[in-house]
């Protein structure tokens, strides 16, 4: 029951406070990653793996030490709150939707660039909308559902390990000439840690579709399209989410000046600006499903 209570409290803190605007630990960790890359980079899998271990293991052990005393629950609450980015994701998504509603494409492009790694300078309204919905669905797993999953499984050390690895993957997990070998360990470890939570997120999206037809469509898209995506975890999440919303995502996108073919996800018309709020609503309903299941689990354990 304490774990469930801490999850509720962390979600409440995130809704009330959002992410810290200064001194966020993950920003500091990002600077540490940059320093490690500057001084330790080599086009070698082993070097990258050793750096990942050297960056993650000491901080995970430190978090375990911090939560050992009787007041460790307070540290667990703070660490989980810092790992969740639900309000921030919503603010970014709604800001892009508002810019699109006002017809301000330059502002929408500028805002969406904070969420995605593709080139955004010349994308149109439909591409902006698709990119934002994709990011909301995928980051719903990475910044909300997966941290909670690992908190349930392994407490504060679990959520710290997950968020650190997820940050490393965001910075080193690219399949380009520089990171294909050096970032291999970060990318594969992130794939492993996301495997179960991503599928639980996809399941929640499907169940939160709002009707039996939407749920069936979400499962169909997940089954037939999810495995075709370049990421083994983002594919099921975005395919199920797109199916639940009844929109089409994916398609070609520009990365680092080159067009990259991507499979279609979902069914129906291409996502539009109004679908950004619908994706955020889907996340809220999916979180409601998670909380009901976690609450029932906590009660069963207490009996």
TrEMBL record:
InterPro entries for the chain: Cobalamin_biosynth_CobD/CbiB
GO terms (BP aspect): cobalamin biosynthetic process
Entry's Gene Ontology cellular component terms: plasma membrane
Membrane topology: Multi-pass membrane protein
Stored Pfam families: CobD_Cbib
Keywords on record: Cell membrane, Cobalamin biosynthesis, Membrane, Transmembrane, Transmembrane helix
Gene Ontology MF, one: threonine-phosphate decarboxylase activity
Keyword Cell membrane assigned: yes
Keyword RNA-binding: no
HAMAP family registered for this protein in UniProt: CobD_CbiB
Matching PANTHER family: COBALAMIN BIOSYNTHESIS PROTEIN CBIB
Protein name as catalogued: Cobalamin biosynthesis protein CobD
Gene expressing this chain: cobD
């Amino acid at each position: 029951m304490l774990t469930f209570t801490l999850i509720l409290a962390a979600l409440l803190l995130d809704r009330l406070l959002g992410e810290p605007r200064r001194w966020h630990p993950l920003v500091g960790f990002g600077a540490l990653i940059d320093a490690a890359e500057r001084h330790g980079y080599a086009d070698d899998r082993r070097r990258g793996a050793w750096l990942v271990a050297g960056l993650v293991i000491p901080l995970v052990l430190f978090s375990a030490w911090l939560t050992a005393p009787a007041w460790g629950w307070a540290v667990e609450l703070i660490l989980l709150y810092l790992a969740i980015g639900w309000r921030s994701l919503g603010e970014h998504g709604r800001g892009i939707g508002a810019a699109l509603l006002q017809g301000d494409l330059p502002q929408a492009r500028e805002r969406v660039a904070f969420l995605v790694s593709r080139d955004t300078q010349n994308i149109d309204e439909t591409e902006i909308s698709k990119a934002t919905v994709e990011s909301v669905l995928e980051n719903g797993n990475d910044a909300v559902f997966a941290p909670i999953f690992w908190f349930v499984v392994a407490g504060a050390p679990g959520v710290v390990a997950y968020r650190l690895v997820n940050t490393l993957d965001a910075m080193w997990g690219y399949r380009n000439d520089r990171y294909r070998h050096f970032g291999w360990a970060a990318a594969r470890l992130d794939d492993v840690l996301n495997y179960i939570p991503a599928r639980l997120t996809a399941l929640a999206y499907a169940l939160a579709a709002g009707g039996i037809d939407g749920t069936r469509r979400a499962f169909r898209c997940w089954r037939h399209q999810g495995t075709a995506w370049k990421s083994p975890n983002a594919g099921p999440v975005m395919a199920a989410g797109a199916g639940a919303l009844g929109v089409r995502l994916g398609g070609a996108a520009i990365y680092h000046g080159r067009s990259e073919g991507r499979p279609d996800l979902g069914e129906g018309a291409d996502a539009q600006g109004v679908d950004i709020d619908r994706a955020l609503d889907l996340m809220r309903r999916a979180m409601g499903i998670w909380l009901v299941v976690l609450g029932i689990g906590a009660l069963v354990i207490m009996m």
